[in-house]
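Late entry, evening session. Most of the bench is empty. Finally got around to the prediction I had been postponing all week. Sequence below, unchanged from the version circulated by S.P.
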Amino acid sequence: MKWIKTALVMLALSFSFNAFALDEDAEMAFKDALTTGDVKAVEKFMKSEPELLNAKFFGWTPLQMAANANQLAVVNYLIAKKADLDYVQPNAHHTAFMLAAFNGGTEVMTALAKAGANVNEKLKGDVSLIRYFRDENVPQMVEFLTKLGVKDDGCEDKCF
């Protein structure tokens, strides 16, 4: 059964790779622009290939890449373009909001929350972000997440 699931994920990813026509160099330049905060380059790519907005690169969207790198200007640009705020990466089960949280991106988290991102999506094992940061002994992030409306719910006792 597990091999069927793996095959389906690989098939889905192969379709998403073919959804746009970037060559290898252009794809690397696009990813670099997303993660270094080069909004002008991101705009240029988006103008020539609008389908890049929610394209998947090894399961990651441009919004997730920018959020993971704490690139607020790029995140705001992608939000304005109506990027999928709640896409969950299938393997890691992370959203852009979660990735920003893991990297201390409070401004990015705030922008995503204000734009309507689901701040209560759970990590694998039905673990809330608050539980994760409490277990990691990061009380300032627990406090910040609480202020953004993240609920302290999910799994009880044993989470995995």
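Two things to note before I forget:
Residues 1-19 have pLDDT under 50 and may be disordered.
The radius of gyration is 16 Å.
Will write this up properly tomorrow.
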